[in-house]
Amino acid sequence: MPKIAIIQAGTVLYDKSGTLEKVKNYVEEAAENGADLVLFPEAFIGGYPKWNNFGITMGTRTPEGRKEFKRYFENAIEENGEESKFIESLASQKNIHIVIGVVEREASTLYCSIFFYSPDGYLGKHRKLLPTALERCVWGQGDGSTMPVFSTSVGRIGGAICWENYMPLYRMTLYSKEIQIYLAPTVDDRDVWLSTMRTIALEG
């Protein structure tokens, strides 16, 4: 039975270098305690800017909000960028699987994604299919081409981000790919989340 470390911690907002240092520290601690896989929250790198609207109202955006979004955009990471390479190297050095929520930047669009790493290298990603509510003003939609389940030494792993876990057809997609370790990074801190996870465990 694989040992999984689940990180419950916050981002260093607008400071991806500081956040990567936290990632390093948590991965090292997880590895020292015998974990085979470590899971980080939704949008851990880049941050989930809860309560921030970036100055958005219908039909207009404030200059201050534009400046703040620019900072947010600059702290996102690219799939094959130096930050991703750093995490890939960390997984190899510590002989551990790392599954981490990131704000992914591609061209001019941001995505809420999960990046998957094994000790043997980068495995791939899942992009959130449909951001929730105001998230849609900040993150683009996944197109359904990144719904993987990876075969690893700890089992068949995949994930659903936050309220994707309320999408029955996406859950069925993961089940049909014979997922064994179902990972659900989220910022949802309500008590109801626990019953949601129990329901999915029984359903699966």
UniProtKB/TrEMBL annotation:
Coiled coil location: none
Any one GO MF annotation of this record: nitrilase activity
Catalytic residues identified in the record: 42 (proton acceptor)
Domain CN hydrolase: from-to ranges: 2-204
Matching InterPro entries: C-N_Hydrolase (IPR003010), C-N_Hydrolase_sf (IPR036526), Nitrilase/CN_hydratase_CS (IPR000132), Nitrilases_CHs (IPR044149)
One Pfam family linked to the record: CN_hydrolase
Family statement: Belongs to the carbon-nitrogen hydrolase superfamily. Nitrilase family.
Name assigned to this protein: CN hydrolase domain-containing protein
Natural source organism: Caenorhabditis tropicalis
Lineage: Eukaryota, Metazoa, Ecdysozoa, Nematoda, Chromadorea
